[in-house]
């Protein structure tokens, strides 16, 4: 099991925080936990139609977190997850996020339980 002070986060929560619609900023500023995010999360956050101000808030938030870049091990886990869970074939970004959490042995914190709770290889924490 992963260190309880390390977490991988799903992008919807990031979006809620940077747009000011959530009371969750304290989670992201908690010095007792180390938060990781997938490269695909960064892409999804920064390539939406967002304002310059929101983009700046996203970049400030991400600057204090740890980025997980896909590597060969994550690519192999991604392929395995797509083979094991057919529904992920239409949720490729979610599959990559799950593969990253699996390889890094990090629990996945998300509001999107529907796409992740079936994946036995990862621990999913509702947010």
CATH superfamily: 5'-nuclease
| Strands side by side in the biggest sheet | 3-2-1-4-5
Rg (CA only): 14 Å
CATH topology: Rossmann fold
pLDDT < 50 stretches:
15-19
- Roughly what is the average pLDDT, rounded to an integer? 83
The SS-based structural class is alpha/beta
What's the helix count? 7
Task: Tell me the number of strands.
Answer: 5
Beta-sheet strand percentage?
5-15%
Please write the string of helix (H) and strand (E) elements.
EHHEHHEHHEHE
What coarse outline follows from CA principal-axis ratios? globular
Described by strand count, sense and barrel closure, the largest sheet is: 5 strands, parallel
CATH architecture: 3-Layer(aba) Sandwich
Any idea how many domains? Answer: 1
Bin the helical content.
40-55%
What is the CATH domain class? Alpha Beta
Distance between the termini: 19 Å
